[in-house]
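User: Here's a chain of 285 residues. Predict its fold as tokens.
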Amino acid sequence: MGALGFIDGRTVDLKELVIAMEDRGYQFGDGVYEYTKVYNGKCFALKQHIDRLFRSLRELRIPGVFTFDEMAGIHERLISESGIENGGIYLQITRGWAPRAHNFPDAVIPCLTMTIRPSTLNPALWEKGVGVLSVPDERWLRCDIKSLNLLGNILGKQKAKEAGCYEAIQIRDSKVTEGTSSNFFIVKDDVVWTFPLGNLILTGVTRTKVLEEIAPAHGLSFLEKAFTLDQALKAEEAFLSGTTTEIMPVVTIDGKPVGNGKIGPVTQKIQQAYRALIVEECGPV
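Assistant: Prediction complete.
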């Protein structure tokens, strides 16, 4: 069938009008979201994504009205009914519908909507690397919540697009925090550096796999420590991580080469290891 949506227990055409005008996600961005990649008809790292979803709901005090098994079942249903073997499933949960008021409404039921769309891989970018643009980090102070409020990310991503770059990396108090839709890493003296967890970055599922699974298994040293843009420019390697990005080598920052301007050996090792995790869970891709 192709791309599909899901709401109120039924699959729908993406053009169908289904959202109430006073849904708080629509009026306030009062909700959370997740995006999971599908390879060979299987969701990759679904449990980690749903665990993070539940955490975001708790942080915003939105009631959790779905179990993990229910969420997994809906993902499987969308894959089956759409016939999409390789793509991505986006879900969001808003606080629900209520007459517009800033405070939390009483006795409101959260609203779950989901979509599945096909996606294609772009191995050329992984092989040659990309350029990124540095921009001020103008987001709110709870970036650890995967909320629907993404204006800061959108503005940064648009600046990168207009500059001919793949991604924007964000600078707060002179330190590089993360990309607009990815986490950011540098490699210096064979040590992998990335911004520490806290309220200023998202706990990326791919980031976690790099630090907790790939690095220990492959003897890679890592450091969760803030670093400046100048330090990033002087690094030997840099890369982005994310669900759609996977492991993306960064070869230029603001038009200046990182290291020798080519993909480095540590980044290549992490790329290969991440691909192996996908194959292990979902089969050859």
